[in-house]
Amino acid sequence: MGKRIQQRRAGKGGIQFRSRTRGKIAPVRYPKIGTEAHETGVVRAILDERGRSAPLAQLEYGSSQFTYVPAVTGLSVGREIQFGASADVSSGNVLPLSSIPEGTRVCNVELRPGDGGKLVRSSGGSAVLFSKAGGSAILRLPS
């Protein structure tokens, strides 16, 4: 009899095929703020999490509240990050696509407001805001 292929052995399960669950720092979440609100956070640390290609930035905002977001290129410890529609258009700030000028590079784009970002999340990836029409935007994705 022949040998079972690796996919079939892995499908059965077992200790050697289970993924590691230790070493995770925290889920990536953005602070819940309103559409017209403005929030500022400070980068306290940049962390490397196993199993994730992009590093994480630990943000402190409000009254000693912490959250973890993907660290973009050029982000450093002690830098202020702005959230909201009135935030400046610069690397690391989080704002809606309606407030960003065309031709700007963006990353971690939400498909629906509040979903935490679904597009262009990998390390070094970015999309270009190609055009805006009405309530929708067209992005040139890296793929």
Description:
The structure is a single chain. The chain has one helix spanning 6-12; strands spanning 39-47, 56-61, 65-70, 80-83, 105-106, 127-133, 136-140. It has 143 residues and is mostly beta strands. The chain has a single domain, classed as OB fold (Dihydrolipoamide Acetyltransferase, E2P) (Beta Barrel), CATH 2.40.50.140. A four-stranded antiparallel sheet has the order 3-2-1-4, with no helix packed on it. It is globular.
Number of domains: 1
**Number of DSSP helical runs:** 1
Query: Could you give me the name of the CATH homologous superfamily?
Result: Nucleic acid-binding proteins
Structural class based on helices, strands and sheet pairing:
mainly beta
Summary keywords:
143 residues, mainly beta, OB fold (Dihydrolipoamide Acetyltransferase, E2P), four-stranded antiparallel sheet, three-stranded antiparallel sheet, 7 strands, 5% helix, 27% strand, globular
